[in-house]
Amino acid sequence: RWMHSFNTQNPATDLQHQFLDAYNIAFPSTPVYIGEYHRAKSDQTQDLSTIFAVAERNPLFVGLSFFEFTVSYYKTGSETEFGMFGYGEKVVSTMDYFDAELDVCLAPV
Fewer CB within 10 Å: N-end or C-end of the chain? Predict the structure, then answer.
């Protein structure tokens, strides 16, 4: 019924030895996930591949929630480093918004 979560910007290579080894002993029946994951200025593709491999080996580790979907342009400083996508020029899709069809223009960050 219960699940734990934590937030991190650490590299995926830290996950097992810095957290999961001790967690699995302390909470042997409680699943856990990363509530806010984003590693700015890194190879996210490689890091996520490593996290998925760790999840395969650890049945209590159920995954992650990526922080954030798009860059929050209203924020300042290092807060603008988060987001899987920024707003771009190329239309990648459309969406219905209160009966109006709007263009979705996203670019990988």
Answer: N
Helix (H, G, I), strand (E, B) or coil at 44: helix
> Which pLDDT does position 23 carry in this prediction?
97
Q: Which residues pair with 61 in a beta bridge?
A: 32
Rounded to an integer, the average pLDDT of 33-58 is 89
* pTM given for the model: 0.77
CA distance 64 to 19: 14
How far apart (Å, rounded) are the C-alpha atoms in residues 103 and 35?
29
pLDDT at 43 exceeding the cut of 90: no
Report the C-alpha gap between 73 and 78 in whole angstroms: 11
Of 46, 42, 53, 66, give the one whose Cα is nearest residue 16: 53
